[in-house]
Amino acid sequence: MSLLKELNEATRSEIQTLWEKGDTKELERRMRPRIEFGTAGLRGKMEAGWTRYERLEYASQGLCQYVLSQVKDASSRGIVIGHDHRYNSERWAQLTAAVFLEHGVKVYLYRGLVHTPLVPFGVQRLNAACGVMITASHNPKNDNGYKVYWENAVQIIAPHDKGISDAIKSNLNPKTWSVDQVQSSPNCLDVTEDIKKLYFSAIEQLKLPQYAPSAQPIVFVNTSMHGVSHPFVTKALGSYGITVNPVKEQMLPDPDFPTVPFPNPEEKALDLAIEMAKNCKANYVLAQDPDSDRFSACELHSTGVTTFTGDQLGTIFAAQAFEIYRDSGKPLSKLAIIASTVSSKMVEAMAAKEGFKFVECLTGFKYIGNTALDIVEKGYEVPFGYEEAIGFMFGEVRDKDGVAASVMFAQLAETLHGQGRTVNSYLEDLYKRYGYFKTSNSYFICNDPQIVDTIFFRLRNYHDQKSGPGPNYPQSIAGLEITGVVDLTTGYDSSNPPSYEPSLPLSSGHMIQFRGEQKFDGTKIVLTIRTSGTEPKIKYYLEGSGKDSKVVSELLPRVVSELGSDWMQALVYDLGHP
């Protein structure tokens, strides 16, 4: 065990015990390979081991060295650091601060719990060199994470992710494990209240031109998922004269997440909020995930409850952004809206009909945010961008923001209510104008990376002879002909001969998008299958579109069934499926 040079006695002892027990299987999981930077940073279980999230000291050392080497005046510009309420979050935020202080870098360490969007907001307003948020977002309670923002206030992308990873490996001898200087150093500044004041002022700038609180009674229920959002959401909505009824059992931060073991609004975690909404006859449920960068919503009506999907909310917000821009009199040719490639194609259809620019990018807000900055450089305005995983970007923060999304949704609901309409009826009007789009997104669970590779290898070698739209990809699914394939892992796009090179950059993981069509009625599907950068999942994003909502709705379950039984071979590989 001479390999294990570990100053933290608790984590060293944890690995030592596994060694003495001869548990080589668990040691393999814990120790190889080292945890790598994924979606803008690190995320994993709070356990000992190089594959687990307990290597914060090394991560901060590597990040610090890399930032100093890459960002001009990094020492004086400083780093913004925030943390949520999870176990170890405060300690690790202080440790990150201590590492940067040790290297002579100014530190803006937020005091108390903050929501994730406050970190990129602070990086932008303070012109900081970088930012770090300690959070695992909506992951289970035993996880934590380390999210990194670059000097442009957007999550890191290549080449910085690799550069930071390499710097971590080159700086594995910690200089400090003490956080004592964090409280005493004159270089560790507290700007928390000043930045919050500026943030709420920016939120007030999101006021809809036509917004007016409804004179008729409208009731909102809000859940914070045992996270940090309650004080931020109530203050932000309060500035618009909107009050919410909090789900008290989930209102206060609690790292044990007692009522929602998997605190993700996408994962059927809204039952308590919906039950309360029914009891108090509320019109809508608003929800933020634990670090308040994601948003979800439900509408209650006489026939039941509509839980909006991320794509439906994205479409609603996109239409809202388009209408505001159109009514301002600005040329629509200068409006751009961004969505990830796995998100709905309804905004694409909207853009084609209305004359604004639609931009597609890879999955994740590190790409959405950086794409927004690139498009603005070309002379466009980008008031909105989204991804289907309930992430929505408004205003100056080029990252998803659950507080801003809550404000935008509540304003729209209030305005529509005064007109005798609802958000759901607004969505139905959009379907009538742009076509009916329906999504069915989920995932398969697979803890073995080799099986994942085997599944994707088979999809790329489905036939012995080359035929169809791709070299060896499947030619049909659920009776639909596959009409196009884009493989962002191998770099293949069947719609772009003769080079067959995709317009989007390659993905770091497996990612294939299939387009299919039902010839007799023109009903179409887009099916994207990809691996997750933070979870042991093969995710799929399925959307059907057509003139007949019933035909589309009936088609999607058949596609999912064949996807699982044939393409994924879920029974063969014992894949989990919610």
TrEMBL record:
| Cofactor(s) demanded | Mg(2+)
Leader sequence range is none
**Transmembrane domains' residue ranges:** none
Which Pfam families does its entry note?
PGM_PMM_I, PGM_PMM_II, PGM_PMM_III
Source organism's superkingdom?
A: Eukaryota
Q: Which residues form the Alpha-D-phosphohexomutase alpha/beta/alpha domain?
A: 35-171, 208-298, 310-434
In which broad location class does this protein mainly occur, judging by the first location in its UniProt entry? Answer: cytoplasm
Q: Name one GO cellular component term.
A: cytoplasm
The record's keywords, sorted A to Z, are: Carbohydrate metabolism, Cytoplasm, Glucose metabolism, Isomerase, Magnesium, Metal-binding, Phosphoprotein
The family database entries (PROSITE patterns) matched by this protein are listed as:
PGM_PMM (PS00710)
**For this chain's UniProt record, which GO biological process terms are given?**
glucose metabolic process; purine ribonucleoside salvage
- Note the Gene3D superfamilies from the entry: Alpha-D-Glucose-1,6-Bisphosphate, subunit A, domain 3
Q: Which family does it belong to?
A: Belongs to the phosphohexose mutase family.
- Could you tell me what this protein is called? Phosphoglucomutase, first 3 domain-containing protein
Q: What is the organism field in this record?
A: Gymnopus androsaceus JB14
- Taxonomic classification: Eukaryota, Fungi, Dikarya, Basidiomycota, Agaricomycotina
